[in-house]
Design a protein that fits this description.
By secondary structure, this protein is of the alpha+beta class. It has helices at about 5-15, 20-25, 80-95; strands at about 30, 45-55, 60-70, 100-115, 120-135. The chain has a five-stranded mixed β-sheet with strand order 1-2-3-5-4. Strand 4 (about 100-115) and strand 5 form a beta hairpin. Helix 2 packs antiparallel against helix 3 (about 80-95). The longest helix has 16 residues, at about 80-95. The two termini are about 15 Å apart.
Length: about 140
């Protein structure tokens, strides 16, 4: 399994198992890699990601940049920002264990908030940086 797939799978599992995330996004939580045609709001998507080598002279590793986006149709940004805070807290305290890899770090770097052109859908995107190393 690639480091990117292992990290996404572990992150999804950690978020899906958390009771606060379930309270915010339903049970099971509406966290999608591929969004259904008519999703129930609010929901989150595992968004764009990049990966690059993070090798040293003695170790191999991968640097990941990931996005997790929340979508809400509640009036205003409040709901998406509250759910974002829940997700940030959950990720900060979760044990995230990518299969066949070691998670060296996972850091929240920034978040953006916006109103989509439809005028009713609010979006909050959380950006993370992670480094993984393959297990020997």
């Amino acid at each position: 399994m690639t480091a990117a797939i292992a990290l996404q799978t572990a992150l999804f599992a950690a978020l899906s198992a958390d009771t606060d995330v379930q309270a915010a996004l339903g049970t099971p939580p509406r966290i999608y890699d591929s969004v259904p045609r008519a999703p129930t709001f609010p929901y989150a998507t595992l968004g764009d990601a990049t990966e690059a080598p993070w090798n040293t002279k003695t170790e191999q590793g991968t640097e990941h940049r990931l996005a997790l986006t929340l979508w809400s149709r509640a009036s205003g940004h409040k709901e998406s920002k509250e759910i974002a805070a829940t997700l940030i807290d959950t990720i900060d305290h979760a044990t995230i264990a990518p299969e066949a890899h070691t998670l060296v770090n996972l850091t929240f770097t920034d978040g953006t908030h916006g109103l989509e052109p439809d005028g009713v859908t609010y979006r909050t995107t959380l950006h993370y940086r992670a480094v993984t190393e393959p297990q020997a």
